[in-house]
Amino acid sequence: MEASSNSQIAKNAIFLYVRMLLSLIVSLYTSRVVLDVLGVSDYGIYSIVGGVVLMFSFLNASMSSATSRFMAFEIGKGEINRINKTFSNSLAVHLIITLVVAVLLETVGLWILMDKLIIDENRIFAAQVVYQFSVLSTLVGITQVPYNAAIIAHEKMNVYAYVELANVFLKLGIVYLLSIGNFDKLILYGFLMLTVTIFIMMIYRLYCWRHFEECKQRPSMEKEFFKPMISFAAWGLYGDGCYSLRQQGTNILLNMFFGTIVNAANGIASTVLGVISGFTMNILTAFRPQIIKSYAFGNIQRMEQLIVYAVKYSLLLVGVLSIILCYEMDYILALWLKDVPEYTPWICRIILISFCIVTCSFVINTGIQASGSVKLQSFIMGSISLFCILPCTYVCLKLGYSPYSAYVCYGVFTIVMYVCSLVILKRQVHEIIVLNIIKSGMIPIISVLSISALLCYGVCMFLEESFTRVIVITLSTIIISILATYTLAMSIEEKKVARGYLKKLLWK
């Protein structure tokens, strides 16, 4: 059974990486064109306006996590009736969340947009229109959450790869229309992004209606199913809400102290982080259903093993990419963008280094969520994020420090939050040996990444900045990381599996 589960995880990860690579290629191209067509100021406006909308999306994010957890748990149990009722209850909750978010966005969110943000008077109307497009896109996304959760819980990751192919062509179409359109470019971009969101939503929804019986259920509310989901989501709401407020609060502080130019730099950094985080989320999405189902079966040893694997390989992938990008960030940004906003290279570097720690926290949090008890985790993580990071950021900026200080504050506290996550996981799932996760998952990969980083430094010392150096560093880092991982980070069983896959690949 474990061999079959591992094979399913591997297949799911491959499908998700195909999806990610398609998205990566298009994202790098479209971001460059969009920045060039909109200009730095309008791109910054789109980033900050979209950020205000995202600030309230934590209501959806918390319930999305709850839906995914309970769907995977019930599928792990194998009781069809409970699966159907879990979906119908989650659908009802998300419709309620849609209404709540709509009210908040059209009151508090609109107030922030009109009274608190620094936007050129000539672009106020365009910002208002784009804001409404972003609101509609967010509301559509909220109603789609239960359907996406069903796809993930059933581990049909190939669907994401196929739908992303359609998404790729649609986004390329947006770039083309944006370049030839005579209408206001910022408004046109917002409208086209909304159109794509609605179209992709319909594809996912039609697939779910056709393949999953539970997705044909109507919204309903039953206390037995409704209450635990709301309890799970309510505490998740606190944690996600604090994180969202901290994230957007930082963006607003940067806007208040430095204007939209730094927001543009933050937008570019967020794009880079989004691409890199895709590597983490692909592995985590592939592992998540199995981790939850292992807990549902009561197989804690298997659950711990999956957490170790997820930490190990997600950190490896994110770490390798971060090393390459950190050394070559200036060249890559200059190659990618015609006009690189000030501060962008170092903001990207600091965010990437911090995200290596966040990656490990994501995996640990999945283990905590599998237990169904997220009260302690959400309270501690949310409180640190909002009441420690944001005040430190404000103090640093008020004292006259550069925008980098905001990201350094975040990086320092990610380490604190990771340690807290490990302690909470042990408290929630007593049978798990936390030291095994550190010893077998993190430490070997840190050794691998240290070797790769030293290699990159050596290459940079001997080669001048150029495309050739990027290629040399990329290939060298990947090869050394693979060899070092096989030697230092893989167990005997993992080496056997790796050799087996390699033999099959060579014989084909």
General description of the model:
By secondary structure, the protein is an all-alpha fold. Helix content is 88%, strand content 0%. It has helices at 2-55, 58-77, 80-115, 124-153, 157-180, 185-211, 223-258, 260-297, 300-336, 344-370, 375-398, 404-428, 434-462, 467-489, 492-507. Helix 1 (2-55) packs antiparallel against helix 8 and helix 5 packs antiparallel against helix 6. The two termini are 26 Å apart. The model has no long low-confidence stretch (mean pLDDT 82).
Helix content: over 70%
Q: Beta fraction of the residues? A: under 5%
Order of helices and strands: HHHHHHHHHHHHHHH
Radius of gyration computed on alpha carbons: 23 Å
β-strand number: 0
Query: Largest beta sheet, briefly?
Result: none
| Tertiary shape | globular
How confident is the prediction overall: mean pLDDT?
82
Class inferred from helices and paired strands: mainly alpha
Distance between the termini: 26 Å
**Number of helical runs?**
15
